Amino acid sequence: MDSRFSGREFRAETGRVLIGIPAYAHACDALLGRDSAAIPNTYINALAQVGASPLIIPVIADQNLLSHLIDLVDGLMLIGGPDVDPVHYGEAAHPGLRQMTPSRDHMELRLTTWALQVKMPILAICRGIQVLNVAAGGRLWQDIASQVPNVRKHDQHPDYREDHLAHPIQIAPGSRLADICRQTRVNVNSLHHQAISQIGQGLVVVARADDGIIEAVESSSEQWVLGVQWHPEWLVDRSEAMLALFSAFRDACQSRRAVVGLPGAQHG
Ligand code: MN
Asked: Is pLDDT of 268 > 80?
């Protein structure tokens, strides 16, 4: 790439979309236990496979900086992680609640609210579907196993590998998800102990496990918003349907850019 070529021109030339990924907040051993921002490479690799570029959004409180970063990207990908603080959906902590990261909750809820307002495409994975639902005013089961009767084991970690196909899901015919997967029953991995209990505004349930647990939601409007409770990024090498989730997300980001123009284009 010509060094005189700006990033914006490169994206216009290649059609590559830029995906914002809010990071984990954690203390990293390699950095002497200091707080760090991190993204597991499985997510980055899945985007790379469909020709999309990741932009890591660090865990920051500065609203101006966050607003600058979300303005740069074509889409928002919310990834896995610890529990969302139930204060964000008006509940007291249940004994089954696990680790939380309040600074990341605030950042992700802010970014998700903005992305919903400007109709930016959102792909929300595992914790991501929960953040999406809470940002839309919905609620969560804080611990499925102790709050919901007769459920299967959805928390397969650490007994099984991350790509273990734990259970089937039933996808609503006619949904965006069914269209992408080209089938209405698929087997998925399952690495969650929470799930949606009450759906947020503007979202619809499009997949459930056979015990009734909500496994996927979409936007009820034209906006491309898809939340999945499983981890498709671990399955892209073995499943065309899972890779198709990422390419459909990329396509939605490209389409939106064609409508709203490249970020900052008004100054260029
Ligand atoms: Mn599950």
From this structure: no
